Amino acid sequence: MALVNQAKREINAKIVFFGPGQAGKGTSLRHVFNKLKPEFRGALKVMSVQGARMLFFDFTPPGDGNVDGFRVRFHLYTVSGPLVDPAAWKMVLKGADGVVFVADSASQRVADNKTALDQLVDYLNGYGQSLATIPAILQYNKSDLPDASPLAQLEQQLNPSGLASFQTCSQSGEGVLQGLMALVKSVLTGLRTRGADAIASGEGLQHMVESPAPVAAPTPPVKEAPPAAPASVQPTVAPAAPAEEDLSLEIAGDPVAAGDLIRVPLTIRSGAREKTVVLTLSLGLSEE
């Protein structure tokens, strides 16, 4: 779910490195960070999320990385650790514009790769996405090791839909950057097809919150009757109007920082109704 920053004339897109534990997701992301020139990237940050480590940084691709005059800034995320809570992955995958599935090429990790791929499909389905609707590539990591499965076997096991795939070695970096740049081009193509105006108009907060229930028209005031002479007559008190349901706002999860953007999951409640949204804050410093 790309986000438009009108003030900076930027479109912010999100790419997630996903895969089984110890497959090389964090090492791959760090290699990309180290290979990019400092003028094209932000700082690499680490945050604790649901007991795991989330790594992320942002960069602008060199060359023609614009959409309708807006510069595109990519935010790369992954969650590192042998076991990652599903809640952490769901939070990181929310709003993703592209996915790198990092598989472990070792023959003994076939089951782990398939389980992780099934989890990815399930998480994306929860957001109305799939590997057919979101740009994605397969990264067969550790392909240089003696126990690595042949490419043809990996393709048969993990890639029946024919996604673009790359044999990589995250330790040396071989193939990692090439795979990511292919995905970046695919995401850029999709953004250009939609255009900056369509991206901006489709992702405002008002599009993520249910419309409020219609408010009934106020009852016209009743003219007061002339005062009665006898003191024993008690005035009639009009029934009080029903109280409106209180509106509450709660933080639904840990805020996620990416460069000068902070995404805060919120839950809005009104009576028995509730809606979860993501509030994106853009931070900047101004000189006086």
Automatic annotation (TrEMBL):
Biased composition, class Pro residues, residue ranges: 217-229
Keywords: GTP-binding, Nucleotide-binding
Record region (Disordered): 217-241
A Pfam family that the UniProt record links to this protein: Arf
Keyword Nucleotide-binding: yes
Record InterPro entries: Gliding_Motility_GTPase, Small_GTPase_ARF/SAR
Name this polypeptide is given: GTP-binding protein
